[in-house]
Each structure stands twice: as structure tokens, then as C-alpha cells.
Amino acid sequence: MALYAIGDLHLAQSVDKPMDVFGERWIGHTEKLRRGFETLTEEDLCVLCGDLSWAMDLDGALEDFRFVEALPGKKLILKGNHDYWWSTAAKAARFFDTHDLHSMEILHNNCFFYGDYALCGTRGWFFEEETGSAQDKKIMRREVMRLEASLKAAGARPKLVFLHYPPIYQHYECPEILQLLREHEVRLCCYGHIHGRGCLSAFQGWRGGTEYRMVSADYLNFSPLRLL
User: Fold this and answer.
1) What contacts 194, CB < 8 A, 6 or more positions away?
2) What is the largest CA-CA distance in the chain?
3) For the chain, where are the E strands, in sequence order?
4) Tens of pLDDT along 58-95?
5) Spatial separation of the C-alpha atoms in residues 228 and 6, rounded to whole Å
6) What is the C-alpha separation between 42 and 129, in angstroms, rounded?
7) To which H or E segment does residue 33 belong?
8) What is the pTM of this model?
9) Could you please report the per-residue DSSP string of 68-133?
10) Are 146 and 121 within 8 A, CB to CB?
11) How far apart are CA 30 and CA 13, in angstroms?
12) pLDDT tens per residue, range 18-58
């Protein structure tokens, strides 16, 4: 069983949201994703790092979930900033069960085990003290608490973290999240959210004992990145 990650599928099976307006790379991206997943087997696990669907609610996202269900492997889903369909993990789990969607689980205030490793994560957020709003600060604190809960649920196992927002980008750093990664000796942190020319400014590599990898779908040419 291999472990993969990819973010920002931006599926729109039931809504009018063509992704090709964001550049040639996105033309036919749904079919590219289908081909990109062909290397996975049914025993593999792929973490989907947010922005799965443009739908506004669970019912609207059903066809996107069915697309993901038909892809090989098991999938862990975490929230992105455009996942407006997201309500609660419990509601999503009930929705999946009702519609016979059995290859997906929600990574939210919890963790999952992959061999000796614990898979932890949350959405994350961008917040800068000098320019951020009170609401942004509140959201950031909540995300930090969710990541801490996920890491604590992992116990003493080696930890891999999956976020939607990068904790490091250009001049920006999120000290609260970086501190948690250091305290829990996180070995790998994957994130998405960044697209197009912004990928040139994404930080990838080692810092503070953690390796950072960007897994935005367009950056990966719509093929999940094999991690382990």
C-alpha cells in the first residue's frame, strides 16, 4: 500500500465553473485527473488537500464525490478555502454512507494511521498580524487548535501533516503552525492552494526538521505525488 497526496481537484461536475479560464494547463483537467490516478491501486491511500469541489452544498457535490469514488484507492479529504459544500465531518460521513461512497473519509480534528505513521491535518489559514482582520485571527486560532488536536490524537507515532494553506509562502510564515510542527517533530508537511505562476514562489525543502512539499494538482500535472 502506497501513500499519495494531491490538492485542489476543483471538480465541477454539476456546477458551471470551467477551470480552463485559469490557463491552458487546466483544459480537460478532470480527464487528466482520471489518468493521473491510474498509477494507484485499490490498496493505496491518497490524501486530498482541500478544494475538492466547487459545489455549494453536499447534494451539489454528489457527482464530484462519485468521480472521486470511482478513482482507485482510498482517500482522506481535508477542507480547502473553496469547499463551500463542507458542513461537518459527521454530516459528510452520513452523506457518504447514504450514497454508497465508501472510499472516502474526512480528516478533521482527528488522525489516521498509515503503517507506523500518523496522518494529521487541517485547512490552515493565512494571517498576518499587521494586516489581518479580527475574523482572520479567529479563524487562524481555530485552525491551530484543530491541528493540535490532530497531532495529539496521533500519540507517539511519527507524524505527517497535510494542510490546504502553506505555512510558509514568500515572506509569510505562520509561527503558530510552524511551532506545532517543530514540537511534534513532524517529518513531512504537504500543502496545496498555490497555482500558476505562484508555484514559482512556493517553499519546498527542509526547514526546522520538516520537509515541505507542494501538491497542488496543476503543479503536479494532475497526478498524485507518491510520498511513501
Assistant:
1) 166, 169, 201, 202, 214, 216, 219
2) 47
3) 3-6, 45-49, 74-78, 104-106, 111-114, 117-122, 159-163, 168-169, 172-173, 188-191, 205-207, 210-214, 225-226
4) 999 999 999 999 999 999 999 999 999 999 999 999 99
5) 14
6) 45
7) helix 29-36
8) 0.95
9) HHHSSSEEEEE--TT-TT---HHHHHHHHHHTT--SEEE-SSSEEEETTEEEEEE------TTT--
10) no
11) 9
12) 787 778 899 999 999 999 999 999 999 999 999 999 999 99
Report the 10 Å Cβ neighbour count for 84.
14
Edge-to-edge strand list for the sheet holding 205-207 = 111-114, 117-122, 159-163, 188-191, 210-214, 205-207
Residues 204, 164, 49, 107, Cα dihedral to 10°: 130
First and final CA of the chain: distance in angstroms?
9
Q: Which domains does the chain have, with CATH numbers?
A: 3-226 (3.60.21.10)
